[in-house]
Amino acid sequence: MRIEKITDNKKQFLDLLLLADEQENMIDKYLPVGDLFALYDDDLKSVCVVVPINSEACELKNIATYGKYQGQGYGRALINFIFDFYKNDYKIMLVGTGETPAILSFYESCGFEESYRVKNFFTDNYDHPMFEGDIQLVDMIYLKKHLSE
């Protein structure tokens, strides 16, 4: 398994990024300013994008694994890699997600804890209703991880 920081032609990973954020114009807001990482195990399995917020915090804006590889530890490996990659640059990493029990549980198992929520984020910022399974996404739930832990 290897993880690479991608600096050129980030849009080549759009199909995978769209699995986690299904509206391209939202991805276009953070992809140019974010660090894109790709995880390969023979072929491409997962990607993530991390953006700086300020001198003390960064945000995991997108993490996605191809469906057939989900549940095999690739997302967790990528998160552990970025924790280590950014631990000397930032004190806190945030991640925002919908109120989906399985996804919240995954982030909490990676060491994130609930921080705050942004009311109506998905209904205010996307041009169509967003669903994760049968759950409509309304509020953005932010979780945080102290990188020095």
Question: Key features?
Answer:
7-stranded mixed beta sheet; Aminopeptidase; 9 strands; 149 residues; two-stranded antiparallel sheet; alpha+beta
Structure summarized in a few sentences:
The protein has 149 residues and is an alpha+beta fold. It is 28% helix and 38% strand.
Characterise this structure:
The protein is an alpha+beta fold. It has a single domain (2-146), classed as Aminopeptidase. The protein is built from five helices and nine strands; from the N terminus they run E-H-H-E-E-E-H-E-H-E-H-E-E-E. A seven-stranded mixed sheet has the order 1-2-3-4-5-9-6, with helices on both faces. Strands 7-8 form a two-stranded antiparallel ribbon. The mean pLDDT is 93.
Helix and strand arrangement:
Blueprint (H helix, E strand, L loop, with lengths): L1 E5 L7 H7 L3 H7 L4 E7 L1 E10 L4 E9 L8 H13 L5 E6 L3 H9 L3 E6 L2 H5 L4 E3 L2 E3 L2 E7 L3
Parallel strand pairs: 4-5
Antiparallel strand pairs: 1-2, 2-3, 3-4, 5-9, 6-9, 7-8
CATH overall fold name: Aminopeptidase
Unreliable residue runs: none
How does CATH name the architecture?
A: 3-Layer(aba) Sandwich
Distance between the termini: 25 Å
Please tell me how large the radius of gyration is. Answer: 15 Å
The overall number of domains is: 1
What is the general shape? globular
Strand content: 35-45%
The top-level CATH class is Alpha Beta
Q: Strand order, main sheet: write it out.
A: 1-2-3-4-5-9-6
What value does the average pLDDT take? 93
Derived from helix and strand composition plus strand pairing, the structural class reads alpha+beta
Structure annotation, total helices:
5
CATH superfamily caption:
Gcn5-related N-acetyltransferase (GNAT)
Kindly state the number of beta strands.
9
Q: What's the oligomerization state? A: single chain
List the helices and strands in order: EHHEEEHEHEHEEE
Q: What does the largest sheet look like?
A: 7 strands, mixed
